[in-house]
Amino acid sequence: MDGRLAGKSAVITGAGSGIGRATALRFAAEGALLVLGDVRPERTAGTVAEIRALGGDAVAFDGDVSDDAYVRALIGTAVERHERIDILHNNAAFSIPGRVGDITDEDWRTQQRVVLDSVFYGIRAALPHMTAQGGGSIVTTASGAGVGGEYRLGAYAAHKAAVINLTQTVAMEYAADGVRCNAVTPGPTATEPMLRWLEDVPGGPEEFGRTAMLGRMSTPEEVAAVVAWLASDDAALVSGTVVQANYRITARRPT
């Protein structure tokens, strides 16, 4: 498995399904050495099995990304196995739909811990290793909801907006250390959580997809291709950037 990421040590969170799984498979095809995390061990095991069947190198280290101790151990596993960490893909997230006035304190904090705190924990844990080894690439899955808001996703959108700001700050602070930090804002993507959320949206996936720049929903594999590019040396001059991947061009209240 030779490619742009050959021999690179990479960590991916939320790797059991959707964009995380697709990215893990893409990274493996590009030659990366993978440590994969998810809160659902059975799903991560499936991703690892697929990669190994294709001749790739991957292990699972599962846990809850809202737990700083777990995230540190996840990063530590990659460093222990490969003596470095070259790539961190912060992908794990979830949302609890509801209009702002109906969001409970618990729902707000739960989403903050998974969507925002986990990204901070991952970046903070990876930075000492990346700076000591002379560089690295951090790529976070953000969201178009974090740029323009999203109906019934107020908490999720607010935390994703913070992720974007954190990405830009890290890029600025650690450029001199050779660390690049970027984010991807996928438009409507056909993942399980998105398709489940769209069950309550008039017109469903087809109508919602029309609001994206390309007039259709993206596939997880298409987003993974963007992540792989940002993680690779092909994007060596790119940092502090939020890549709009089939970005949603309109944000509206469903009628």
UniProtKB/TrEMBL annotation:
Single Gene Ontology MF annotation: oxidoreductase activity
Enzyme kind, highest EC tier: oxidoreductase
EC number(s) stated in the UniProt entry for this protein: 1.-.-.-
Ranges in coiled-coil conformation: none
Keywords: NAD, Oxidoreductase
InterPro entries assigned to the protein according to its UniProt record, in alphabetical order: NAD(P)-bd_dom_sf (IPR036291), SDR_DHRS6-like (IPR051122), SDR_fam (IPR002347)
Similarity comment text for this entry: Belongs to the short-chain dehydrogenases/reductases (SDR) family.
Name of the protein: SDR family oxidoreductase
Native source species: Streptodolium elevatio
